[in-house]
Amino acid sequence: MLTSFKTSVSVPVLAASLALLGACQSNSSTQETTATTAPQADTAAAKKPLSEPLVRDIYTADPSAHVFGGKIYIYPSHDIEADIPENDKGDHFAMRDYHILSMDSINGKVTDHGVGLDVKDIPWAGRQLWAPDAAFKNGTYYLYFPVKDKQDVFRIGVATSKTPTGPFKAEPTPIAGSFSIDPAVFTDTDGQSYMYFGGLWGGQLQRWQGGKYNPNAAEKEPNSDVPALNARMAKLTPDMKKFDGPVKEVVILDENGKPLQSSDNNRRFFEGAWMHKYNGKYYFSYSTGDTHLLAYATANTPAGPFTYQGVIMQPVQGWTTHHSIVPIKDKWYIFYHDTQLSGKTWLRNIKVTELKRRADGGIETITP
Ligand code: FUB
C-alpha cells in the first residue's frame, strides 16, 4: 500500500537499494518486499546522492525549468508542512503558493523571487496548488497550475505576467475542458503550443471516464489487463488561455504496437508529463507513480501514438518523482526532486543533473 511504502523508503540507503532494483520490479507490493530485504550493497555510493538540492531554505518540488531570454527559470511546487496525515489521495501535499526561482547558469547561484502566485488570489480555487508549468509567447509569460476547485475537483488554470517571475494574475475561471493535474506546455518548432496533463489516484484521472467527473469512481485505476489510463493532451489557442479542439489521449504502445496495460505498473503513465523534441522526434516522459520511475516514449508527431522506450531515472528518495527536461547551451539537463533535506515524502527539494543520450537518441538511465 502506498502509505506504508512511503514510510519504508524514507532513508537514503533504502532509496539507493531501490534505485538498483527499480526497473526489474513488477508492482508496488513487490517493491515493498524487495526494498526491505535488499542487501545494503554499495553503502558509500548509496549515501552520496548524484546532486545536491538547489534550494535549502524552502521545500520545493516538481520543477518545470525553462530558458527565457538566456536565463534559467524554475517553476516548482512549494512544499509546506500542513500536518495533514498521508493518504493515497495526496491530501498531505497541501501547497498554497508558488515561488519562482532563477539561475544564470547550471552551477550558478539560485535566486528565489518570492511568491509568484498565491492560492488566495485564484478566484475559483479551493485547495492544493500542485505541479505547475510556464510558457512565453507574444511578450507574455503564462503560468499553468492545477488546483482543486471549491467542489474539490482538480482543474487547470492559467495566470499571466509581463515578467517571468511574476506576480502572475490568474484568469477568473479554469481552462474550459481541463481536469486532473500536472500541466506541461510544449511549443513545437512551428509555434503551435500543446498542453499535456493528467495524473492517477490523487490526480483524479481515473474519475474522468467518458469525459465526465464521477465522484464515486474508485480512488485508483484498475490493476488488471485492460488498456492503461492515458495522459491527455490538447492544442492551445494562440492566446494560450484555452484548449483549441478536443482533449486527446496520449497513447503509449509497447514494442509490439499494443497499448500498455493498466497492470504494467513499471511502464504505464501515472503523472508528471513532460514533452521535448530532439532530432525531429517527440519525447513524452512521465512518472510511473507506484513504481517510482521516470520513463519515456517517443513518436513522430506531438499527438503520438508513442512507443515506450525505457527508464530515464531510477527511483529517488521519497514516493513521488517528477521532472522536466530542457536544453541549456549545448547540453540537456533534467530537473527533478527527492526528499534529501527532510526525509519526508511531502517536503521535497529540487535538483538538476545532466541528461545524456546514446548515439541512437535513446536516453541513458540515471541513478539518482
Ligand atoms: O506535488 C504534488 C504532486 O506530487 C504532483 O502534482 C505530482 O506530479 C507529484 O510530484
Automatic annotation (TrEMBL):
Classification via SUPFAM superfamilies: Arabinanase/levansucrase/invertase
Keywords, in A-Z order: Carbohydrate metabolism, Glycosidase, Hydrolase, Polysaccharide degradation, Signal, Xylan degradation
One record GO biological process: xylan catabolic process
Domain of life where this protein originates: Bacteria
Name recorded for this polypeptide: Glycosyl hydrolases family 43
UniProt site positions, description: Important for catalytic activity, responsible for pKa modulation of the active site Glu and correct orientation of both the proton donor and substrate: D182
Leader peptide range in chain numbering: 1-15
InterPro entries, sorted: Glyco_hydro_43, Glyco_hydro_beta-prop_sf, Glycosyl_Hydrlase_43_Enz
Family under the similarity heading: Belongs to the glycosyl hydrolase 43 family.
GO molecular function: hydrolase activity, hydrolyzing O-glycosyl compounds
Species: Hymenobacter arizonensis
